[in-house]
Design goal:
This protein is α/β, with parallel strands linked by helices. The chain has two domains: 58 residues, no CATH class; 52 residues. It contains three helices and five strands. A three-stranded mixed sheet has the order 1-2-3, covered by helices on one side. The protein is globular and about 45 Å long.
Length: 110
């Protein structure tokens, strides 16, 4: 599924800055991958990606970020990185996800 999502994003105009292929360690491994300028219609923007892929796309304002993030069916976890305390609170309330991490990559203490 990861290969399909990456191929779809590239076909729709995204660029791959690193990775984008299976890892030499074997068929169950995928290279850490960074995709940029990923269009909203790409599969990776609407499906959960259970692999080491980051899809990055530019935005103009906070409202656009929230609308685009909330457009997915699968809102398991969202990550927000900002030093602005008011923005942290707004984003935490606005994102329709099971969990929202603010300035961290680990949700639980486990």
């Amino acid at each position: 599924k990861v290969e399909e999502q990456v191929a779809d994003a590239l076909a729709l105009g995204a660029s791959c800055l690193t990775g984008g292929k299976r890892h030499a360690a074997g068929p169950l491994f995928y290279q850490p991958t960074l995709l940029v300028d990923v269009p909203d219609e790409a599969l990776i923007m609407h499906e959960e990606t259970f692999g080491p892929v980051a899809a990055v796309t530019p935005f103009d304002d906070e409202a656009e970020v929230v609308a685009r993030a909330n457009a997915t069916e699968y809102g398991l976890v969202a990550y927000v990185v900002t030093e602005n305390g008011a923005r942290q609170a707004r984003m935490g309330r606005a994102l329709d996800y099971g969990m929202v991490a603010i300035n961290r990559v680990k949700i639980t203490g486990a």
